[in-house]
Amino acid sequence: MRFVDIIEKKRWKEELTEEEIRWWILRYVAGEIPDYQVSALLMAICLNGMTARETSALTMAMMESGETIDLSRIEGIKVDKHSTGGVGDKTTLALGPMLAACGAKVAKMSGRGLGSTGGTLDKLESIRGFNCYLDKETFIRQVQDIGIAVIGQTESLVPADKKLYALRDVTGTVASIPLIASSIISKKLAAGAEVIELDVKYGDGAFMKTAKEAVELARMMIYLGEACGRKVRAMITDMNEPLGRAIGNALEVKEAVDTLRGQGPADFTELVLSSGANILAEAGLTADKTEGRRKMEAVIADGSALKKLKQMVRAQGGDADQIEHPELLPKADFVTPVFSKERGYIRRARALELGRLAMEIGAGRETKEDVIHPETGIVLGKKTGDFVKPGDILAWVHHRGPLEGEWLERLYTAFEMSAEPVPEKQLIYKTL
Fold it and tell me: Is-catalytic flag, 161?
């Protein structure tokens, strides 16, 4: 078998066989196929797509490229959630402890942020001492004992995805539904959860720019997961503006803690409650979503969800006092308010631009080598639909050094204005 024949076959929009897909994945992981050839194939896939059968074969080949995690020793229903990425998305930090307090077993592997998209591991590491890298036995034991662990992906788990994603990132081949779906589901299958909730985002700050594209991606991932015996659900959610108000690692940890105390932003709270209700119903832990939502609200009200977060932080070496007292989290040297110059309504707070601006002051990384400053970021004072007048605060900037005038102007123009009232934004477009 020659790899160039596989490239040419896909160039002519022909379907690759399971044998061909398995062969090139295994050879690429082994270092026997060069990046420049795989780049050519990835571009052909981006341009010409893959059938459901090809995507399924690619998912299984990627999953089998390394070790998998057997969670069968853990008593109870093992659940996981995955977001396709967005600005201000701190869902795991609130949803995970809430699910654990409701009796689910949350075995979660998360990633780091790159560009305008934040990473769960970066947020957790803003907590003093938090260890994202537990060995497999410790991970399983912690999930069994307290119901939740959140760790980074191990080097031996789905190594094909690590190599392919790094290559896709630098060759303009990220935005492909078959490649995104196989990347996500191969990792979810390898991580061992029985029930998987997907938050597939669309809009300015997401990979999928339209709701239609997000639905297509979600349906493909549901198909792939269910074909392997998993229960999979998906929510299609809007990422045209940041989720919640905080953008930046320590700031988002604080907002997650606020949410677990019943004081979080309305949009973020709604997403967490809806997602949790879906998971509990799918896992058979509640009769339906209505009961699931009541249960999620109850663990906020009685403090048991916040207690689970503190237990997880403490178990993974973190300073749980920073959860009990979020004012102890890293703080920026400066906090600068940005004021409105106009009167009107916020038509949109552009997610992509706000994420980029936060990254540029240290809240994210443009390359994998960049250092994150956990105390930096942006907290929105106004969001879509809000009325503002000159002098009202649009946002607070948490920063380390002087802010350039051009940067501040970009922040100001990230808020699109309207003279007329703006209809209420629908955060959750559809549940599949």
Answer: yes
Name the catalytic one among 80, 89, 122, 161.
Answer: 161
Q: What one-letter code names the amino acid at 351?
A: A
Which member of 56, 176, 182, 183 is catalytic? Answer: 183
**110 assigned to active site:** no
CA distance readout (Å), 371 to 93, 358, 361, 365, 376: 22, 13, 11, 7, 12
Q: Tell me if residue 187 is catalytic.
A: yes
82 is catalytic: yes
CA–CA distance, 234 with 274 (Å, rounded to integer): 11
Known active-site residue 183 = yes
CATH number at residue 269: 3.40.1030.10
Q: Which of 295, 324, 353 is the last residue of a domain?
A: 324
Kindly state whether residue 90 falls inside one of the protein's structural domains: yes
Instruction: Please indicate, yes or no, whether residues 296 and 160 belong to a single structural domain of this protein.
Output: yes
What is the extent of the structural domain holding 31?
Answer: 3-49
Phi and psi torsions of 138, nearest 5°: -65, -40
Q: What is the pLDDT of residues 290-347, one digit of tens each?
A: 999 999 999 999 999 999 999 999 999 999 999 999 999 999 999 999 999 999 999 9
